[in-house]
Amino acid sequence: MGTRHEDQPPEHWAGAESLDPTPVWKQYILIAGLLFAGLVAVLVVSLLSIAPQIVTPPALVPGDRLVLTLDSVPGVGAGPRLVASPTIDDDRSFYVVQPERGRVLAFRAVWSETQGASACKVLPAPGRPTIQQFVAVECPAASGQKGSPLFDLRGVSTNGFRGLDQYLVSMSDDRVIVNLSRLIEASERTGGPVPTGIPQPQQP
User: Fold this and answer.
1) Is residue 6 part of a domain?
2) Which of 10, 95, 158, 178 could form a disulfide with 66 if both were Cys (CB 3.0 to 4.6 A apart)?
3) Predicted model pTM
4) Residue 32 sits in the same domain as residue 130
5) What CA–CA distance (Å, rounded) separates 24 from 194?
6) 80 lies in a domain?
């Protein structure tokens, strides 16, 4: 069987269109477009990551991150500070506390006896010389023998209830970042003794 071009059947011959040059410029445009889109994506991600460091506090940046100044954090062991409207909407309001040096916590201003149950307001409990506890008010749970739910500045219940939910907090040299999209829900108490050294509620 011959191998020369003229020995091949006509239907195997390449058509005249095969002699047209390949439109390489279209490939260049596609590659350039993909590179540009990649650079834009990298720029957007970079700006989002550094946004908390370049805005003027208080400010809410993309990702539901609220940036506060260090001055907005109470001193060690001091009473909590409420962050609410107009800084953020009241549904996501929270208290900032510093139970020990360098540890800043942000507790939601609402609480429920079980996850998904109706919410109660959380308020600073009166104390002397400074406020050292939270109390949940207007709660069905308060009708029991344990009384109103009480919590220390670490969010732990001192009379046997579920603890306070809190937002994730991070700190830098001059600001505090509260991630409102990262809610850390306290686990439900399953019973057991109240921690020692804490006054027991009086029975009626």
Assistant:
1) no
2) 178
3) 0.69
4) no
5) 77
6) yes
